[in-house]
TrEMBL record:
<dbReference type="Pfam" id="PF01503">
    <property type="entry name" value="PRA-PH"/>
</dbReference>
<dbReference type="InterPro" id="IPR011551">
    <property type="entry name" value="NTP_PyrPHydrolase_MazG"/>
</dbReference>
<dbReference type="InterPro" id="IPR048011">
    <property type="entry name" value="NTP-PPase_MazG-like_C"/>
</dbReference>
<dbReference type="InterPro" id="IPR021130">
    <property type="entry name" value="PRib-ATP_PPHydrolase-like"/>
</dbReference>
<dbReference type="InterPro" id="IPR048015">
    <property type="entry name" value="NTP-PPase_MazG-like_N"/>
</dbReference>
<dbReference type="Pfam" id="PF03819">
    <property type="entry name" value="MazG"/>
</dbReference>
<protein>
    <submittedName>
        <fullName>Nucleoside triphosphate pyrophosphohydrolase</fullName>
    </submittedName>
</protein>
<feature type="domain" description="NTP pyrophosphohydrolase MazG-like">
    <location>
        <begin position="42"/>
        <end position="115"/>
    </location>
</feature>
<dbReference type="InterPro" id="IPR004518">
    <property type="entry name" value="MazG-like_dom"/>
</dbReference>
Length: 281
């Protein structure tokens, strides 16, 4: 028996349909009879990489200060949630409304200083401590009491972000250097070990020592209250701008970087640093 899609079509084509329109569009895309073959084939695992990509594109639009682009990227990210909700609905696991209800309940429960009787007269640091206590109580109530300090830090986070979160967890139980001086000493120690590994050890050992150095660098960022992912993204942006300046300068001579000597490239790099230096306010 052929389904009557007339009502669905009306919802999908209504420019004022709002969220219900988007939910209906996703249901139609996943419809086994009339949906999109690509969308029908997807599952939770295949969509996950797209979700990560969309989250980074949101962050990129924010970094560029492009609010028009941000609006579109937020829509792309919302579509990922809609996608999971539809697949969950098809399998009888959850739907968009249950997802929204669950996060709303969680936010109310975790903000008793806003929605309950707790005092709002506390620092952000104290609120973070209270947040973790509430999360621990939630886990215990679900029979998921975690016995290890580092449990629950997502494995698939970007490596630098996960390193920082692991270190923050360890610091809460006192496993931390008292100041940046000890961290800087450790960076020097790890740098020496990496050089020694380069000269005498296997590639696997060199990789391990490099990882140790990166881990300590993330620790230094934490002590300086710097987001290491954000700092590295900024460094990537700066490198890109300077290298493109080099290419532009060589292009004026009808040349490209491969035709220039390292001495020439270094000189142009220094020129780029001066030319692209931020203008003082």
């Amino acid at each position: 028996m052929t389904k009557d899609y007339s009502i669905s079509q009306e919802i999908c084509l209504n420019p004022s349909g709002g969220l219900n329109r988007l939910l209906e569009i996703m249901a139609r895309l996943r419809d086994p009879q009339t949906g999109c073959p690509w969308d029908i084939e997807q599952d939770f695992h295949s969509i996950a990489p797209y979700t990560i990509e969309e989250a980074y594109e949101v962050a990129d639009a924010i970094a560029q200060g492009d609010m028009a682009e941000l609006e579109g990227e937020l829509g792309d990210l919302l579509l990922q949630v809609i996608y999971y909700a539809q697949m969950g609905r098809e399998q009888g696991l959850f739907d968009f409304h249950s997802i929204a209800q669950k996060i709303a309940d969680k936010m109310v429960h975790r903000h008793p200083h806003v929605f309950g009787d707790d005092s709002r007269d506390k620092s952000a640091a104290q609120q973070t401590i209270d947040w973790e206590k509430i999360k621990a109580a939630e886990r215990k109530s679900k029979g998921k009491q975690q016995s290890r300090t580092l449990d629950g830090v997502a494995i698939n986070l970007p490596a630098l972000t996960r390193a920082t979160k692991l270190q923050k967890r360890a610091a809460r139980v006192g496993f931390d250097w008292p100041s940046t001086l000890e961290v800087l000493d450790k960076i020097q120690e790890e740098s020496i070990e990496l050089i020694e590994a380069r000269d005498s050890l296997s590639p696997a050992a060199q990789k391990e020592e490099f990882g140790d150095l990166m881990f300590v660098m993330a620790n230094l960022a934490r002590h300086l209250d710097i987001d290491p992912e954000e700092a590295l993204r900024a460094a990537n942006t700066k490198f890109t701008a300077r290298f493109e300046y080099i290419e532009d300068e060589l292009h004026k001579q009808h040349r490209d970087p491969s035709s220039a000597s390292l001495t020439e490239l270094d000189a142009l790099w220094d020129k780029a640093k001066d030319a692209l230096k931020p203008t003082p306010d």
